Amino acid sequence: MLSFNDADVLPPALRVAMERVRDGADWMPARQLEETLRSELGDGWRSQLVSFEPIPIASASIGQVHRAVLEDGRTVAIKVQYPGVADSIRSDLWSMKQLIYYTGLVPPGLFLDRILEVAQRELLQECDYVNEATATRRFKRLMAPYPEFAVPAVVQSLSSQRVLTTEWMEGLSIDRAAKGTMTSAERDRVGSRLLWLSLTELFTFRFMQTDPNWSNFLYAPRTRQLSLIDFGACQSYDPQFVDSYLRLVMACAEGASGAPGAREAILHHSHELGFLTGKEGRTMLDAQYDAAVLVGSPFARDAQPFDFGKQDISKRIAKDVATMIKERLTPPREEIYTLHRRLNGCFQLAARVGARIDAREILLSVHGAHQWHVDAPVESGAA
């Protein structure tokens, strides 16, 4: 999370260290790599390939990726999971919990147990490459009507519980592409499509890829296409939750626009979604409202197009977050952790790209097309 958060949050030396964590890790020894591929895919796995590059082109905390070419000529990415990584996740999170409790660094209002419970569940989900293959195929179907996006096909014959092979997707990670020669108009277009994608995944698909790592979004300068990769962390949302959350987002946008009644709407929907219990004091309620308005500021009526490259929401919201951690009486519901990680990541991606986006128009278009759950009252929408 720290490796792709707002750069201003971290001291320069720590930011460099975190970028190294994101960009690479140690490789498996050749013998271990061969044993893993043979145990997962069978002795004849190489017979399906014309070539296989033994040196990984990427490595991270769960696995490493190798480039290969199939017999039919397609270039593919073969992701190989480190042996024993699932067991190490459980052990590492337990050790982290003991260390943090021992040092007393975390206030009770952070509800660390819930954070680690959700983190462990998601990290173990990312270790299940069969689940990731299913999510990848689902996203490929969902994105088929939108040619500006591409999702790789899964090569089933070279995939298993700990090995996943997909089509090779060309392009640069978003943060690296943004450092190139992208025009301002192209920056705005890319940022707009990324914001549209996040809102569409949540409110239309009700199925979201929740890891906003820069490297999961690739930009091809020649075709101007955005490729989406790595679907290990995905979450489905029930219709009632999505309806309530859309109402909250609209209330935040109206609060940022200075609309009357926005405070009552924000606090009502915050209670409905479990952010509040109804027993909070004025300090907590003020912090909840102020933070909600800040988050809604990109969608404010008089702020369009919103310049994400110049926004400082993460800095301005820090005081409210500190108050909420101190004053809140209940942890957020489970869906919120990964959802807010993706939405925060979307803002950070748009900031890295330096995009100016008519964010309100995108929100209103998604809101207008939303299919409301039959048991929920239909909202008329913002003016």
Question: Topology of this structure?
Answer:
Elements lengths: L11 H12 L6 H12 L7 E4 L5 E2 L3 E8 L4 E7 L3 H19 L8 H15 L2 H15 L5 E2 L12 E5 L4 E2 H5 L5 H22 L1 E3 L7 E4 L4 E4 L5 E3 L2 H18 L5 H11 L9 H15 L9 E2 L5 H4 L1 H10 L6 H20 L2 E2 L1 H10 L15
Parallel strand pairs: 5-10
Antiparallel strand pairs: 1-3, 2-3, 3-4, 4-6, 7-9, 8-11, 9-10, 12-13
Described by strand count, sense and barrel closure, the largest sheet is:
5 strands, antiparallel
Integer-rounded radius of gyration:
22 Å
Task: Give the total of beta strands.
Answer: 13
**Average pLDDT metric:** 90
Tell me the domain tally: 2
The ordered H/E elements are: HHEEEEHHHEEEHHEEEEHHHEHHHEH
Helix content range: 40-55%
Number of helical stretches of at least 4 residues: 14
Low-confidence regions: 1-7, 378-383
Distance between the termini: 36 Å
Key words describing this protein structure:
single chain, 383 residues, alpha+beta, Phosphorylase Kinase, domain 1, 2 domains, disordered N terminus, disordered C terminus
Question: Can you describe what's shown?
Answer:
The protein has 383 residues and is α+β, with helices and mostly antiparallel strands. The protein folds into two domains: 2-84 and 126-167, Phosphorylase Kinase, domain 1 (2-Layer Sandwich); 170-383, no CATH class. It is 49% helix and 13% strand. It has helices spanning 12-23, 30-41, 85-103, 112-126, 129-143, 174-178, 184-205, 239-256, 262-272, 282-296, 313-316, 318-327, 334-353, 359-368, and strands at residues 49-52, 58-59, 63-70, 75-81, 149-150, 163-167, 172-173, 207-209, 217-220, 225-228, 234-236, 306-307, 356-357. The strands form four sheets. Strands 1, 2, 3, 4 and 6 form a five-stranded antiparallel beta sheet that branches. The chain has a four-stranded mixed beta sheet with strand order 5-10-9-7. A two-stranded antiparallel sheet has the order 8-11. The two termini are 36 Å apart. Residues 21-254 form the ABC1 atypical kinase-like domain. InterPro entries: ABC1_dom (IPR004147), ADCK3_dom (IPR034646), Atypical_kinase_ADCK (IPR051409), Kinase-like_dom_sf (IPR011009). It comes from Chrysochromulina tobinii. Belongs to the protein kinase superfamily. ADCK protein kinase family. One of its GO terms (biological process) is ubiquinone biosynthetic process.
